[in-house]
Amino acid sequence: MSSRDHRVEEALQQLEHLQLLMSMRPIYLHHGATQEAQKKPIEDELDVFDEMQPWDRSSVEVHISEPNFELTVTYMESTGDEEGTKNFKILLLFSGNDYLGLGSHPTIGKAASKAALQHGMGPRVSALICGYTDYHRRLESGLADLQNKEDCLLCPTGFAANVALMVALGSVGSLLAADKTPLTHEKVAIFSDALNHVSIIDGIRLAQRQKSVEIFIYRHCDMTYLNDLLSSCTMRKKAVVTDSLFSMDGDFAPMIELVKIRKEHDFLLVIDDVTHGTFVCGKNGGGSFRALLLTVKKRNLSTYPTTSPLATWSLIFRLQDAIVSKDVSSTILVGALSSLGVLRSTFHAYNRSISEESL
């Protein structure tokens, strides 16, 4: 065994001793209810979900093999090899992000299936080459409208959006310094909540490697502490980054206080609202800002990210994850567009019913 292999083996043994290793245990997605639902004709192309439907259960019901179930509850390791397994436990998942069950909605599945037959499954190529399609543009416009923004830039994943945006912010200092190591006054100060998502943390770490940012971590949702850090910072270019809804703790960032502090210190406010706030909070699913009836007309980014047209085109050439990575396939884009349509129909029907009740 080489010295490198020996060090890796020692590290793995130490992690195992600390119980920090976890096996990946496959689950089997339940599809019976979805198949039954799809046998029924869908009368409206944009069918709403104003009540529980047969397909909703399939979004939370999964099967797990009995051997793996026993290993899971006893915290034992699993190989993940279950070929030939016949006995399964039925479980309900309450840890997924498909809060509205759109992933199993038959209207959306029908639209995605049609797109797969027409355009194939895989992504074409990166957006920079020839991967940017009319579906991308339509989805960006729809999301920007949902968030009440002027424009939107799609990234392959929310993780990629956060990492790319943090690196792009870090590149501002090096650009102003003509690609030399920036002086202190040329750097960007990034203030990050202590419990921000790991994608933001990884992005900040990458930005630090450019030596063009200074990082300040403020205590979770502590606006007094953040205000003190901002007041003592002499750097002119500042950005505050936060999740809107913190998934592990279940609390919201203090948006109203952040907006008040931003007026005093004039920083760029970056809000990650895509995973837990969009479609779930606010008027017509517009996210956390709309839920709190807040309006910030400038210097505000929400990741997808969404921002102004000029800033979008500037970001395009700095967010490498958005332009160099293999882009999202047409099948996924059409499914997302269909989701927007279903949501619009649902909210329209809901708002109409509220108006009729108030008469």
Automatic annotation (TrEMBL):
Give the top-rank taxon of the lineage listed in the UniProt record for this protein.
Answer: Eukaryota
Q: Which UniProt keywords apply?
A: Pyridoxal phosphate, Transferase
| UniProt keyword Nucleotide-binding present | no
Give the cofactors, semicolon-separated. Answer: pyridoxal 5'-phosphate
- Residue span(s) of domain Aminotransferase class I/classII large: 91-297
Against Pfam families, the record matches this protein to: Aminotran_1_2
Q: What InterPro entries does the entry give?
A: Aminotransferase_I/II_large, AON_synthase_class-II, PyrdxlP-dep_Trfase, PyrdxlP-dep_Trfase_major, PyrdxlP-dep_Trfase_small
The entry sums up its family as follows: Belongs to the class-II pyridoxal-phosphate-dependent aminotransferase family. BioF subfamily.
Name of the featured protein: 8-amino-7-oxononanoate synthase-like
The gene designation is LOC103333458
